[in-house]
Amino acid sequence: MKRIHSLRFLFVLLAGLALAACTNLQEPAKKVLADVESAITATSADAEKYVPEQYAAVTQKLTDLKASFDKQDYKAVVAAGPGLIADAKALADAAAAKKSEVLEALNKQWTSFAADLPSAVAAIEARLATFKKTHKLPKGVTKDAVASATAGVTEVKSAWAEATAAFGAGNIQAAIDKAKAVKAKAEEISAKLGIGADAKAAG
After folding, report:
1. Which residues contact 16 (CB under 8 A, 6 or more apart)?
2. How many other CB atoms sit within 10 Å of the CB of residue 73?
3. Which of 64, 76, 171, 174 has CB 3.0 to 4.6 Å from 68, enough for a Cys bridge?
4. CA 152, CA 193: separation in Å to the nearest integer?
């Protein structure tokens, strides 16, 4: 009987110690979880955009960590925390590198458009001025085509101004998209006016 009481006491003691240890780890685990979540959130916008697969993998680990915390497995949270913090840093570095690579490519595209499109527009305006001065149209160029081109070049210049403004505001992708539309329209007008390929926008 005495032995049974001793075993019960030992069981209660061990359970108490385990509960105390668990309670002692709750605050550290909570801090680890907060630090990990903060580190991932700080880079989430760029990471989700530029390295989505890596972002998904890291956020899944965070979800698993939260599940461990909810199960009061604080020891597992504390143990996994440093590794996940390292993953979050690696995620931030990867996102920054990819973003830099993408922006560099977009800037090269823009440089090409900025070099070629103004000269393409100038070629169109020069051709229209020639038609107006000589009152003669080359074979294959109609009056309707000239009228359409005159209106179109005004649209092209306005759209190019919008593209330039977007680039100046740091909206590089929007600027590139507008520049592509300008290029297509300029090429369409050039073809209607019989302007040679050497005068078309390139890039």
Report:
1. none
2. 17
3. 76
4. 12
Please name the amino acid found at residue 73.
D
CA distance 189 to 183: 10
131 and 148 in contact (C-beta within 8 Å)?
no
Cβ neighbours of 128 (radius 10 Å): 16
Q: Along the 203 residues of the chain, how does pLDDT read in single tens digits?
A: 444 444 343 344 343 434 444 458 899 999 999 999 999 999 999 999 999 999 999 999 999 999 999 999 999 999 998 999 999 999 999 999 999 999 999 999 999 999 999 999 999 888 888 888 777 777 777 788 888 888 888 999 999 999 999 999 989 999 999 999 999 999 998 888 888 644 444 44
HSE value, Cβ hemisphere, 13 Å, CA-based, for 146? 16
- Distance separating alpha carbons of residues 30 and 104, to the nearest angstrom: 40
- Alpha carbon distance 169, 197 (integer Å): 32
Closest CA to 51 of 22, 90, 23: 90
Helix (H, G, I), strand (E, B) or coil at 171: coil
Single-letter code of the amino acid located at 136: K
Angle CA 27–45–40, to nearest 5 = 20
